[in-house]
């Protein structure tokens, strides 16, 4: 399999931007899940932040789900790219350049 770096970069950007764009879901009011199609970022709703606490202490990133999301989006982009190139080549079939 030939890895296309530009498509991979777009896939990573799309997956990471879903955290900010796509609405979150939560199960019990304590955990908020972000990410699409698979939730990979979790934020916990705890009491107010203390002076000795940082925001990263309230978050969790599921690396396996993140990699799976990137793979799924990369696969879709790769399929779309293949189909578009086939359509462009089909239009030029039989025409002299």
Write a structural description.
- The structure is a single chain.
- The chain is α+β, with helices and mostly antiparallel strands and 97 residues long.
- It is 47% helix and 13% strand.
- It is built from 2 helices and 4 strands.
- The protein has helices spanning 5-21, 63-91; strands at residues 25-26, 31-34, 41-44, 59-61.
- A 4-stranded antiparallel β-sheet has the order 1-2-3-4.
- The radius of gyration is 20 Å and the shape is elongated.
- The model has no long low-confidence stretch (mean pLDDT 83).
Fraction of residues in β-strands? 5-15%
Shape: elongated
Task: State the secondary-structure class.
Answer: alpha+beta
Helix content: 40-55%
Please report the distance between the alpha carbons of the first and last residues: 31 Å
Total number of β-strand segments? Answer: 4
Strand order of the largest sheet: 1-2-3-4
Put the structure in a nutshell.
With 97 residues, this protein is of the alpha+beta class. Helices cover 47% and strands 13% of the residues.
Helices and strands in order, then pairings?
Layout (H helix, E strand, L loop, with lengths): L4 H17 L3 E2 L4 E4 L6 E4 L14 E3 L1 H29 L6
Antiparallel strand pairs: 1-2, 2-3, 3-4
């Amino acid at each position: 399999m030939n890895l296309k770096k530009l498509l991979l970069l777009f896939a990573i950007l799309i997956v990471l931007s879903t955290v900010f764009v796509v609405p979150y879901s939560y199960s019990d009011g304590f955990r908020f899940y972000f990410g699409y199609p698979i939730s990979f970022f979790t934020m916990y709703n705890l009491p107010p932040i203390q002076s000795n606490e940082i925001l990263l202490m309230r978050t969790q990133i599921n690396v396996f789900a993140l990699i799976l999301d990137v793979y799924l989006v990369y696969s879709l982009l790769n399929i779309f790219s293949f189909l578009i190139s086939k359509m462009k080549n089909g239009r030029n079939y039989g025409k002299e350049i």
